[in-house]
Amino acid sequence: MGAEAEPNQIRIVCVGNDEHATPVYVRKWLETQPLEDLKIDIEFDVNLTSAISILDNGDADLLAVSASAWYLSKGAPNTMVATAIPRRDENHILVADDRPAFLPHKSIILASNRLQRRQLRRYRADFRIIDPIAFADMIGRSTPPESKLHLQEWMEDLRATKIIAGYVSEKHLFNIANIDARRHMLMTDSKDHSTRFVPSPLQGLTLLVSRKGFPTSLSEKIGDAESMTAWTCEKIILEQIDPEIRDRVGMIVRHRQIPSLLNQAEQEKDLLRSTSLLDAEGDVVDTNSMVEIILEIVGRTGERTLMLERLFEKGEETVHSRLLVAEWKEMLERVTSEHAEDIRLGPARPAFLDL
Question: CB 3.0-4.6 Å disulfide test: which of 68, 175, 267, 339 passes with 349?
């Protein structure tokens, strides 16, 4: 925090325009921000480089930026991630006239993200899940706009005219466009793993970056502990995953309350999880919330998935993140390796998982 700044005042520069979710999340955070003794002034800048310059010059105390943009930029000298605001809208939405389970057979659905395309194929093998650019070539239309907002308008026009059954988008884009259509959240939690839509890494996370030396007490006061845990763990895991396959990897890190975990275990009839949370007398072993990590990669056709889930106590997240990704990489190498001919194991066979 700059030496000239008042103790009860923070200046934030937020990166993004109408197509980015970050300004939307920051505005919502300010609306629900309960710290009446702290005044927060904010300005918006569409360019990350110029926003970093504003922070570096001392004209702002914090830089609000999406976690994915900050990760791709590799950070900036003399800065640190001070904290993060509450995570929002990490799950994508499906815009369609009906819920995914009730859409007509062989419905055409457009999705730009490779992960969501594969997850939807896993959900219903009869769906025709296509990239918007590839679909434009198929029907002889001009290439969809690169702008996310304009791309959504292009896909909505196709949906409204019944050329497609639906498309995948993001909640903030849907709200900005004020589209008169039904939207269905592609949820993470489900009794059946085949209907689970684990979000893309860092999706919905907004960081508050500062110059080095920003007070830790103030970071803890204004920030969200769960989001900071998510950033720490997801960053560690992403750094260990081959960049070429990151676009088909789903990941979520979150805090889980014990009652919620027990309810989920009961619904899923997961005896191992329920017994691990209870002692011999049936009482909860630890009343503190825990950290859950879900990491998956979906095969090309959606028929096969490699998924790992871990649940552990808070304070051990960095160690468990490294252990999890090491185990996941070892498993991934095995399931993507072809089986050579073997006298004992049989003839040569293709890999279990086709990426």
Answer: 339
